[in-house]
Write a structure and sequence with these properties.
By secondary structure, the chain is α+β, with helices and mostly antiparallel strands. Helices cover 36% and strands 24% of the residues. The protein folds into three domains: 66 residues, 434 Repressor (Amino-terminal Domain) (Orthogonal Bundle); 197 residues, 3-Layer(aba) Sandwich (Rossmann fold); 157 residues, Hypothetical Protein Pfu-838710-001, CATH 2.40.320. Helix 2 packs across helix 3, helix 4 packs across helix 5 and helix 6 crosses helix 12.
């Protein structure tokens, strides 16, 4: 007989946390203002208990929200949320320690954390390796098939669990294989398995690349903690570049470099994952620049640059939010998303994104905002200086383009990529928002 357990209400707890942080209050200050104990506030935010109706009334008045809104959040029933991310990186990047940090950090946030072990290490230590199989392609096909099957099993198991939020962490993903093959070999393997690069890359919700210690922390580089590792520091650095290039093009790729200490690196990783998951709120900090039209042939020749075709359609929505659906992919292979955004400031906004099936996408188009035309653009995703840039080419423009970057915090430095020439920053210029451009495209700079 299955035992039913009382679930913590992390959704309500996260909502209270977001209101408290919005108003710059500590847990102790909020407790004082509401006439309750510090422990009571902590239990609310951790999802272990909920305030009574009288406290909700005082809370509504304090935060300037309606009692009805608080009650709606209080009673809201959340569906199970399963998120699958990839943790990748060059040799000796710190992934093993990072796994422990991820587990500790996100169990505290109410997640059931599952880890898909690194497939290459399992195979090589078991005697299945590129040098024992008939060819490297034979080995890579075996590794890719096993990776797919393991992730499928973990997903099926997660769906049976008595948990509200599940985080599946893949110790490397399918696109890691690309770094060990030529482009032609990789495409041949995908075709033999009846799949394609867009589907295999973008079926993960997010990708976090930890840079090898061979780039920026050479004193920490070692082969002793993984018997399957054989690379010299120079080989490790080159492989790290190939791995970043393999994942470039994913809509949520973050590069975790070796700036600062190893602890700084791990804290950076946890902060990036938490931000992506929306803990406590999915905030996006973005900078946007108007740039001179880039050399397209030069971009397409770069190994760390990937071309993606995008069609973006805005749906009917209220004045305080933007809702869009997006078709994203290349070479006839596409994935689909629904995104809702609410602006907090010129640089900061709340963004909630959901993957759609093709049928869900087509149904959503029936609710399109007829006052806005679809945005069609070619996006070049560029990883450079351990940052991820997105360059949008619009068919209406021949002299200029737009480049965006998402940052961890508003003070983070933008390490400007080579070959790109800025005209001006347009982060705060709403004329260059896609929503405004869907209604009226700005003229090119003279």
């Amino acid at each position: 007989m299955k035992k039913h357990l009382q679930k913590n209400d992390y959704a309500f707890g996260n909502y209270i946390t977001s209101l408290r942080l919005r108003d710059g209050l500590t847990q102790r200050t909020l407790a004082f203002l509401l006439g309750v104990s510090d422990k009571a506030v902590s239990k609310w935010e951790n999802g272990r208990s909920k305030p009574g109706i009288d406290t909700l009334r005082r809370m509504a008045e304090l935060f300037g929200v309606s009692l009805e809104e608080l009650l709606e959040k209080w009673e809201e029933k959340k569906e199970m949320s399963i998120t699958k991310i990839v943790l990748t990186g060059g040799p000796c990047a710190g992934k093993t320690t990072a796994m422990s940090w991820i587990q500790n950090a996100f169990i505290k946030r109410g997640y059931r954390v599952l880890f898909v072990p690194e497939t290459a290490t399992e195979l090589i230590t078991g005697g299945v390796a590129p040098w024992t199989c008939g060819s490297n392609m034979d080995y890579q096909k075996c590794q890719l098939k096993l990776q797919q099957e393991k992730e499928k099993i973990f997903g099926e198991a997660a769906a049976t669990m008595d948990a509200e939020k599940i985080l599946i962490v893949c110790d490397r993903g399918v696109l890691d294989n690309k770094a060990y093959m030529t482009e032609a070999e990789f495409q041949a393997v995908l075709r033999s398995l009846g799949t394609n690069e867009v589907e295999e890359r973008d079926r993960y919700d997010a990708v976090f690349h930890m840079v090898t210690a061979a780039k920026g922390a050479l004193e920490a580089y070692t082969l002793s903690n993984n018997t399957a590792r054989t690379e010299t520091p120079e080989q490790a650095a080159a492989l790290d570049d190939r791995l970043i290039a393999a994942w470039t093009g994913h809509p949520h790729l973050r590069v975790i470099d070796n700036t600062g200490s190893f602890q700084d690196k791990l804290e950076h990783l946890i902060a990036e994952i938490a931000s992506f998951l929306g803990e406590p709120e999915p905030c996006e900090i973005e900078r946007k620049y108007l740039i001179h039209y880039p050399d397209i042939e030069e971009l397409e020749a770069l190994p760390n640059c990937t071309k993606v075709d995008i069609v973006q359609t805005y749906l009917k929505s209220g004045d305080d939010s933007e809702i869009r659906v997006r078709q994203r992919g290349q070479d006839g292979h596409y994935i689909y998303f629904r995104t809702e955004k609410r602006r907090i400031s010129d640089e900061k906004r709340v963004e909630v994104e959901k993957r759609l099936t093709q049928n869900e996408y087509l149904r959503a188009l029936m609710d399109a905002d007829t006052t806005a035309h679809p945005i069609r653009k070619t996006r070049y995703c560029l990883t450079e200086n351990n940052q991820y840039f997105e360059i949008d080419i619009y068919p209406e423009w021949k002299k200029q383009a737009v480049m965006e970057i998402e940052l961890r915090h508003e003070e983070e430095e933008v390490r400007w990529p080579a070959r790109i020439r800025m005209i001006k920053e347009v982060t705060a210029d709403h004329a260059y928002s896609n929503h405004r451009m869907a209604h009226e495209m700005p003229e090119e700079e003279k």
